[in-house]
Amino acid sequence: MNPPIHSILKEYWGYSEFRPLQEDIIHSALAGNDTLALLPTGSGKSVCYQVPAMAMDGICLVISPLIALMKDQVQQLRNKGISALAIHTGMSYKEVMKTMELAVNERVKLLYVSPERLQTKLFREFLPEMNVSLVAVDEAHCVSQWGYDFRPSYLQISSLREYLPEVPMLALTASATPLVREDIVTQLKLKNARVISGSFDREGLSYSCFEEPNKLNKLTNILTQVQGTGIVYCKSRKKTVEVCRHLNEQGLPAIFYHAGLDQETRHERQQLWTSNQARIMVSTNAFGMGIDKADVRTVVHFDVPDCMENYYQEAGRAGRDRKKAYAVLLYNPAEFASMLEQVEKKFPDLETIRKVYQSVADFLQIPSGAGEGNTYDFDLGRFCTNFGIDRVVAINALQILQSEGYCALNESVFLPPKVQFISDRGWLQEFQRLYPQYEEPVKSLLRNYEGLFTYPVSINESYLSRSWRKEREEVKEILQALHRHGIIRYEPLKDQPQFTLLAERVRAEYLRVNMNVVQERKKLALDRAAKMKQYVESRECRSVFIGKYFGDEKIQPCGICDNCLAKNRRRVATGTITKDILKLLSASPLSPTEIKQQLTYECDDNSLWNALDFLLAEERVIAEEDGLFRLK
């Protein structure tokens, strides 16, 4: 008999109680129901499938969009003593084989898989032999054409139903509008789905927006006044560097992070920030997903986000410990026009899409009728420079072509360096005798890594650098020398986009694209941009605005956002003015101009008339025909 879920939570996570709705979602999954769970950022979505995975026999198959996120989740589970593995781009055939064999033999409780892997022949061969008890789809909004981060590969997930018709599916997301919810249920073919949605109220989190001509000064003031860990989101890589430099010049310890940094640097900076060795992270939206840090006190958006979904996800990384935290958005009106320009770039016309396709084929020298299934290193920056194509236009044109089944661009791929010994052991011994300077590196490789004579094995060059007491560049030179001597096959690190042809290359004029869908998505993006502008300029409670956007009609005013605080101040001010007006009118009737002149402080016309309207409504004063007000 499997242990009860509360015992599992206590044993592996150290908690005695579940957070709101976690238990409902877990019971739904254990009962065999298809379930769509909407939990706000920081509500503990991963526990909702990890706990039932431990309570059920067999394996939980987790479909996740980001390699870095998968690796973090797997490591966290292993640290808890839970067996977990991941299959993703960058693994060799033999590494995938070994992982699948462990899964088939039920040596794994959670198997993380990228959506692209679901359609591979190897995965499909092993799938029928796996005892899958639950399928969890993380970041489920990616499956929706109308979601804010559409991933065409997510549409392949529903094909699992052919192999696992009776296995319950749990789809999880932090932010989905009613339209996106319906689309998730449809695209994943959820049967009689239970939809469990939490409130979008974030206890202790204060939202605010400031129109600022000098954002750097305002940012400095915010981070000086609010102590503790913070994140500053910028839209461009260049700006993260500039803002980070400014903060350091002001004595505020900050580091920057973006997708242009190599994998190891990103990991090191993430560790510095999560361990509080660096207080402020200045980043693009490449940072944050899957970060488990509860004590973030401030999230500042230096630029206006594209949509409410992105804003809510990123702002919600503040105050997960439910203590007072601040989500601040800085803006100037010119940014809204720029947002509309970006939407135009994200949804190029058919002529532009065909131009990008043809340019990629020329860049990679792929002849017509060839290339199906092939993957190519793709230097996106050099491609855009060589062909004079805007980066945003290129990426989005290729995403549209991916949804049509022509090609795929994986921007976040990370292929670690690999080594395989290709010499026989006799020549290896002779080589070490002839070249004694390489004896210790060879022995170190053989001591630290298994299977080097069988297949390529991923290595950690930073670890070797520390172990050999050499700079990382020297380690690479030694590995390259061993490669030249025919001792090993060395595959250096690859940390650049990969372009895959899903179908043989065709002539650009033969491309067929459903432009009606493209135009519908463009209209939705324009609507989202307009909603973002409306949020920034709104005088409504910001939590209420966000809640209504995501379909939470029961959400109550937070009382702590900038608009609620301003409303409270106005209410106090009106109370003071009404009291003083009554005192003045007790002596004699007065006109509004005379009242304003006799008040002992500055009072604008709007505040004065708010007070007079209130007194009229309460029937405490009367407005005479001659324009004078007197006590009733």
Automatic annotation (TrEMBL):
A single Gene Ontology CC term: replisome
Catalyzed reaction equations: Couples ATP hydrolysis with the unwinding of duplex DNA by translocating in the 3'-5' direction
Pfam families, alphabetized: DEAD, Helicase_C, RecQ_Zn_bind
Domain Helicase C-terminal: 218-368
Enzyme class: isomerase
GO molecular-function term, one example from the UniProt record: 3'-5' DNA helicase activity
UniProt entry keywords in alphabetical sequence: ATP-binding, DNA-binding, Helicase, Hydrolase, Isomerase, Metal-binding, Nucleotide-binding
Domain Helicase ATP-binding span(s) in chain numbering: 26-194
A biological process from GO: DNA recombination
EC number, UniProt record: 5.6.2.4
Domain of life per record: Bacteria
UniProt record similarity statement: Belongs to the helicase family. RecQ subfamily.
Alphabetized PANTHER family for the sequence: ATP-DEPENDENT DNA HELICASE Q1, DNA HELICASE RECQ FAMILY MEMBER
Protein's name in the database: ATP-dependent DNA helicase RecQ
Organism: Flavihumibacter solisilvae
Lineage: Bacteria, Pseudomonadati, Bacteroidota, Chitinophagia, Chitinophagales
